[in-house]
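TL;DR need C-alpha cells for one chain.
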Amino acid sequence: GTIQQFDYGVHLLPDTTHNVVESLNLAVNEIAAVELLDVADSEIRGNSLTENGGGISLVSGTTGTTVTGNTVVGSDKDALLIRDSSGNRLADNSVSGGGDLGIGLERAEDNTLAGNTVAQNSDGAIEIRAGSHGNRVEENVVTESGDHGILVSESDRNVLVSNTARLMSDSGITFDTVNDSRVSGNDVRFNSGGLQL
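>> reply
TL;DR here they are.
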C-alpha cells in the first residue's frame, strides 16, 4: 500500500515485538517515514521511501531489528538512523539525494552496517558519533556526498572493513577521538583526502 502526508508513515511504539513492515510506498511524511521506538526483533524490508522528513529511525532502546532492501530518496533529515539502540542490522539499503546525512549512529552500540549504498547526499554519507561503540561497517559503497565518506567520532572499538568511499568533498574515512578500532581493506581513492586521523 501507500502511506503519505502524515506525521509518521509507520510508528511502532514501546514493547512491540516481531513486526514486519514490508513493500510499502511511503512519501512526504513530515517527521519520519518509519520510526521504531523501543521495539524488539522486527524487520523493515523492501519499502520505497520518497521525500519524507526522516527516513527509517531505530531509537530509544530498539534492538534486534533488521532493516534491509529499502530504497530511500530525498529525505530532509537522516535517511537511516540508529540512536540509543543496539544489536540492529542495516543491510543492502539504497540511500540517495537527501538533504542531510545518509546513515547515522548516535549512542548506538554493537550494530552492523553492511552492503548499503549511499550517494549524492548534501551532508556526509555515514557517521558514527557520540559514544557509538563496537559497531561493524562492512562492504558499504558511498559516493558523491557533500562531506566525508565515513566519519567515526568519539566512539571506540569500531571495525571498518572493505568499504568504498569515492568522490567525497572531504576525506574518504575520518577518525576523530577514536580508540581501539580497525580499518582494513577499504578503497578511499578519488576523494579530497583518503584516511584522516
